[in-house]
Structure formats: C-alpha cells, structure tokens
Specification:
The structure is a single chain. The chain has about 210 residues and is of the alpha/beta class. The protein has one domain: 3-Layer(aba) Sandwich (Rossmann fold), CATH 3.40.50. About 30% of the residues lie in helices and about 15% in strands. It has 7 helices and 6 strands; from the N terminus they run H-H-E-H-E-H-E-E-H-E-H-H-E. Strands 3-2-1-4-5-6 form a 6-stranded parallel beta sheet, with helices on both faces. Helix 2 crosses helix 3. The chain binds S-adenosylmethionine. The site of S-adenosylmethionine has 15 residues, from loops.
Length: about 210
C-alpha cells in the first residue's frame, strides 16, 4: 500500500529551470560534489534513525531479524538500524564503488558491491527489504526482473520508493531534476507494473 516511510514532503523549493547534470556513474561527484551533480554532499547525520524506528514498529521486527537495503549507498541506514537495534542484522547492496568505500567501517562487511538484478542472498532470507530511489536506475526492460529479485529475497515486508509523476508538470520537473534517470514512469504505470508482477509491499513516490 501507499506508505510515506520517510515522511517526505513536496520538493517545491526546486527550480526546474536550473540545469542539473547528475553524475550517473555514482562516483564522487554524485555523492559529494556540487548539488547539480547529485546529493551535494552526503555526510552521516543520523537521518535513518527515525526511519529505522518506524520500520521496526510497522513491520514488527524483533531480533534476530535480517533487513536488506537495495541501493544502500554509504550504508548509513545499516549503521543507524544496527546501532539502535543491536540484535537486528542489516545488509546492503550497491554498485557504487565510491559510496561503498565511504561507508563507516562498522558496516563495510555488510555491503555487497553488486547490481540489484542479482542479489547474493537466498530466497526469503530477509524479514524486511527496502529499496529507495534505486529501482528507476535500471532500464524499463529490466524493471520487472529487478523488482522480482527484490521480492525473491524477502519474506513479506517490503518498502519501495521510486521517482514518479502524476501529470505533465510533475514529469517536466522530474526530467529537470534527473534528466538521465533510466526509467521514467507515471504513478499509474508503476502501480500497473506492481500488479503485473504481484508486488504487494509498501511503496511511495519521489515527486519533484
Ligand atoms: C538516489 S541514490 C539512493 C541511495 C539511498 N537509497 C538513499 O535513499 O539515500 C541511488 C543509489 O542506487 C545505486 N545504484 C544505481 N544503480 C544501481 C544498480 N543497478 N544496482 C544497485 N545499486 C544501484 C547508486 O549507486 C546509489 O547509491
């Protein structure tokens, strides 16, 4: 169901006439370069602590639960989840060598530098699987298999967030924000795709 796990508000401070050129290699510039190139500096700030609490409550997680973050970047969610809940094991996958090299040393061993299309874990291994703003970085023909791969490694608790739009104005803003995003779907197209592959987990939209 639609669920705003991160309590996201509208990004209405974004000026769509400005030229953005995100670093699609997900290297230094994407995470720690200028804002036009990506995050504009992704430093540890504990932002995943509140989200970890909401996850544990909503999905009734208890030690020794295992959770997975697909597209975990610098692994900050893993750090926050495991420091708040020492009995919970948090794992991550990401293809960015740069982001993973910047992960706190406590969580480095819990991150696999692999593509979301082939997650190196067994079927149903995780009590909770999350993917935030990562699924739309595969091309449209790979979106279904990637989502099925996410579903494969989880039991029943999932949260997925993707870039999306409701109308032409939101589409225009999204294209200005992320001109090179690989899969650009409307809310309706995403929901149809979820139904088609049988995705029954929670989801939310990043609307620019
Ligand atoms: C917009 S960032 C989101 C990071 C994090 N989930 C968050 O919400 O802050 C997208 C992440 O997906 C990763 N990524 C991109 N393509 C990927 C792929 N095919 N498989 C795994 N990770 C990927 C990038 O390296 C980056 O860390």
């Amino acid at each position: 169901m639609l669920y705003n796990l991160r309590n996201d508000g509208p990004k209405n401070t974004f000026d769509p006439s400005c030229k953005r050129d995100p670093d699609t290699t997900f290297g230094h510039d994407y995470f720690d370069g200028l804002r036009e190139r990506g995050y504009g500096g992704y430093k540890y700030d504990g932002r995943w602590k509140e989200i970890s609490k909401r996850i544990v409550e909503r999905y009734h997680l208890k030690a020794p639960a295992k959770v997975l973050d697909i597209g975990c970047a610098k692994g900050f969610f893993l750090l926050d989840m495991m420091s708040l809940y020492p009995g919970i094991e948090a794992w991550g996958v990401d293809t960015s060598k740069y982001a993973v090299s910047q992960a706190p040393k406590e969580v480095q061993k819990n991150i696999h530098l692999v593509d979301q299309m082939k997650i190196p874990f067994k079927d149903g291994e995780f009590d909770f699987v999350m993917s935030v703003n990562t699924l739309h970085w595969v091309t449209p023909e790979k979106v279904r298999p990637a989502l099925k791969e996410m579903m494969r490694v989880g039991k029943k608790n999932f949260f997925l967030q993707v870039d999306a739009y409701h109308n032409e104005e939101e589409k225009r803003r999204l294209l200005a924000w992320a001109p090179s995003v690989s899969t650009l779907f409307s809310v309706e197209e995403w929901v149809n795709l979820f139904n088609e592959v049988g995705y029954k987990g929670d989801y939310y939209w990043t609307i620019i």
